Every structure is written in C-alpha cells, then in structure tokens.
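[stage:ingest] chain + small molecule (iron/sulfur cluster)
[stage:ingest] validated
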Amino acid sequence: MKVTNVHNVPRPLVTLAEGKYYSKGASDYSVTELMSPPRVQRLRAQNDDEMTQDVSEMLWPLLGSALHVVMERGETEGWTSEERLFTEVDGVTISGAIDLQEQTPDGVSIVDYKFTSAWAVMNEKIEWEQQLNVYKWLVETVKKTPVKSLRICALIRDFSRHETGKEGYPKAPIHMVEIPMWDAVKAESYVRERLEMHRNSKLAADFGEQLPECSPEERWMSETTYAVKREGRKTAIRVFKTMEEAKELAEKEKGYVETRLGEPKRCTGNYCGVARWCDQYQAELNDPVV
Ligand code: SF4
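[stage:predict] done
[stage:export] tokens:
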C-alpha cells in the first residue's frame, strides 16, 4: 500500500505511516490478519500495489505506533513489552506481538493497549476476546507458561468527565477491561477455523472463483430501524427495531413508517481499504435494495 501526503505533513509522519515500525516478522499470518475477514485479506493481497491511503487520515494508527515507541522507554522490571511470538500450525507460521506481559509467581498476565471509544468499553467487543485469547494460546504454546489474566488497557479518546455518572461509563480516560479466558482447546480450534477460512479464500482466489462473502458483523452492519413519522413533522415520533411496533404506533398517530436500512459501515467508509475492488459491495451499489 502506498501512503500519500496530500496535505504536506512532515515526512517523519509518512515514514511512520509506511509501517516501517511494524512487521509481522517471518510469519504467514499475524494474529490481526488471521482475525480479519478472508475476503478483505485476499483483496488486500491482490491490490496492494494500487491501494493508497493519505497520511492525514491515519491519526489513530499513527498514535498507536507512537505508543509502541513510547512503551520502549517505559522498561520496568518484571514486565516484557512488545514481544513477538511465533508458532506453526500444519506448516503455517502464525505470529503475534504482545504489548505487555507481567511475570507473576503464578504465570503471565497479558495486557493489550487500545485507543478506543467509551462506547466500545461499555459494550462487549468479541474481537478483543478473540485477539487476547490467541495471545494467551501463543504464550502457553511457545513459552510453556500459564497465563493468569487477560486485560485491555483502554485509552479512551472521547472520554468525558460529565458522563461518568452513567451506568457502565469508565471512571477515567485510562480504563482496564478484564477479558474472559478460553481454554487451550477452544483457542486452538478458533485458530484452526480461521486458518481454514483463509486457506479456502486463497484457493478461491487462485482458481479465479468467487471469494467468500463478508458477513454482516464483518461489514459492521448497523441495525435496520423503523421510524414512525407524521406529515408536517420533521423528526420521527419514535424509532423502533421492529416493523410491527412501528406500524402499531403509526396507526394510532395517523402517521406512516419510514424504513431506515442498516448500513455496512466498513464498506461505505472504506475502512477495509478495498471497497472499490470488492464485487460483493460494488454489486450492492449498482443494485441497491429499496
Ligand atoms: S467492501 Fe465490505 S464486503 Fe467488501 S471486502 Fe470491504 S468490508 Fe468486505
């Protein structure tokens, strides 16, 4: 992927954005790649030379990289930072770079930093659970040491002190989130299942067949909602999750129901970076559901 610099920001930022700092080492898949949708992964591999992103749009990835640089300065006894571990499953090498490991008498405690939103901290994020449990499996497989806890150190970019009274809202802009732990069998099955999906996707690409489609979750599909509206009123009277509820109120209010279709935000915002080459999404653009 080529990083452009439309707004002429300082060159060192471009260097950082070009990913000089990050590497998946000599592995076939990093944990992040393994978790990403197989269609996205394939389309990225096929179109890497043509993909572009402007450095000015990369604020959060850049701050993520900056954090890794800063972490090196926070060297603390009993803690290991930025360790990349490798293992092999059926001839495929997988690697994962673990932000922090605390050595305790009982084993290792894993911590992963995330720049994130207060909303993400308040809602279950299955990707965090999957990622950290693959790290746990890597540590236990490679280092033969038990992992005692998994935590996200959330750096909340939209933290607001006024909101701290709300139920579940983090109390401070740096907030620790405990992640449930899987046993080794569950983690290894997850890794094998993901590998299988990527293998099938690669085979499909090699034989010029249709790539497996991204699922609604992978596309970050928002919910379809039903707004009850009335002529002459700009805003909706109420918005429902089901058509039945909306119809019932619309009848009472002598109004009508407006269907607000869910949006695949990863596609529409091109957060996958490959929307223009994706026939699944392009077909929808050419033939939108009404
Ligand atoms: S555009 Fe949407 S469907 Fe296509 S690869 Fe990207 S996320 Fe998947």
